[in-house]
Amino acid sequence: MTDEHADSPNAGTPPSIEIHVSSDNMSASLSVMPVSNQTGNITADEIFDKLNEKKIVFGVEEHKIQAIVQRFNASKSRIESEEIARGKLPKPGRKGEIKPAVAAFTDRVRLEQLKKESKDIHIADMLAINNRVKRVDHGDLAAKRGPRKKGEDGQDIFGRLIENKDYLDTQEIIGHNIAPSDDSETYRSNITGIVTFFDNTLDVVQVDFNAKFLITVAKDLMSATGIFLPPGEKGAMFTSTMITAALHENHVSSGILESVIQDVVNSVNANGEPVADLVIARGQPAIHGSNGKIEYFFATGGSLKPKHKEDGSVDFKELSIIITAAEGQELARLHPPTKGTPGHDITGKELSAMDGSPLKLPAGPNTGAHAHNPDILIALKSGNVSVKGSLVEVSEGYSINGDVDFSTGNIHYGQSVHIRKDIKSGFDVIVGGDLDIGGIVEDAKINAQGNVLIKQGFLGSGKGEIVANGSVNVGFIRNQTIKAKGDVVVAKEAINAHIYARNCVTFYGKSLSAVGGKISAYREIEGFVFGNLQGTRTELEVGVDFTLIEEKYKTEEKIKELGTNKKKVEENLDKFEKMKKLKKALQPKQEFLYKKLMSLLEKITAQLDALQKRKEMIEQKITSIGKARILVKDRLYPGVFIKIGDRNFPVQNEVVGKKTIMLVDGDIKFL
Fold first, then answer.
1. What residues does the Flagellar Assembly Protein A N-terminal region domain cover (predicted)?
2. pLDDT band per the 50, 70, 90 thresholds, residue 535
């Protein structure tokens, strides 16, 4: 440090330096004041000299003095009452801290929660939170105070000792269930329970240490569950009297699972582990009698899917959808209803049961009861057997032993038809039931109100079409069209085919399922291989009901037709309107025509409104995709075009492996 003395040429006038001592002698402050415009600098030594003059020797903060010197010499501004020394106050001693004599419960939040859940806290609930807590009885030591902590003496700024004489009390809170000793050095429990210590508060919470059995009865009184809480330290174990009393108190008197209760009581008493939510009583539900039922002795329909062979392939050789019966043949048996069995709830109240309702023998046309057994239904004549609604009927079957060709002509029959061989090109077959074909169908037109089975194939130049109200099963298909309101099942493959199903389309051909053409199903398309290496465009579409699309087209054509008619009527009415303006009155015949046209216009307008609403409803249903999907078991080739609802996805690279293709969050996904 370079001191600038007052007698040096550049010293200037020395500033005024004053030291102020506090009244309690515990601090000193410094004031430095310039006395003229030519005030000189100050030094730290000058300040220390002032402190020595005052005999200030303790608590001097040298770093503050250095900072003051630098600040004043730089600014020559007044500095007033800056603290530069501070004494040390004495620190009082403290009483010893209270410490629990046994492991205490220290979680205040969980304790409050236990108190809310039950008015009687059980030791098992506390041990589940803190397994170290111990029981204390009346008079047991709960806590004691630790040794006192000594205080520290102080010093004022003149270095004089300030003796510590005080002790501070600790701020503990002693609960109602604690009894302190006269000197407050020990604390004993007033009750039996668990010591608690949190937020500097000491207490004992009352706890049930005996085994505890709790019952919950179901609202329907059909079951009861029990909670078995083991005893704590010195607590009473489970007894049969305790269990019996609890059951009686809750009105449980029936369906008691006594062996289950005894086993769990023995287990809990032995190992001290709680058991919760154990069913200890179960009522007996009333068993209602079953209704009468019909046992059929023939296949009543269901799935037309072919059976799998051992090698995984399928065919339709053993499948038939037309069932015949001879006169007198047994068709069904009527089974009587059964009586109900009463039950009871766990309070012993009886639960009534209903007897089953009887059925009638399902006798339809050409069937009746057996002469010696009125519960047996037989055929009264030979024919085709089917179930129509709830009745069994036998209808005249039509069977063609050969082909449908020029020898037979077109077939139009109101019931089911069995054709043993082929249907040749150019012929129509229209049936009111099922159609069973043993051979091949060429470029023919088929319309069936039921199901269609073609045991071989459907092929030709593309002029053939099958329309079925039920399902269609076919061995293979080439170039032709199938429309089914049920399922379409193909045993092998479809090549350049157009297949539409209101439900599902399934292919069983492993080397090839479909290539070329269009496959459309409302719910699902399933197959092994779609498309080919040559990239032939093959369209797979799900989520679209083809019957609604056809209805939409028909509706639009009708709207167009009615629109044209409406325009013609309006043109004729316009002519009559002009005549009325010129002649002010129409002749009787003209007036008649005018009124007739007005009525026709009103009728056409109403029809157009109804058709427009129908079209809007159809369009809403068409876009309802649901869970439509495509199941690929082996691969997809480039050239396959996937459509789900209004979303499209062209397959550009070969996709290998099992895939489920669905619409997820508005996008086509391969899962």
1. 17-199, 214-388
2. very high
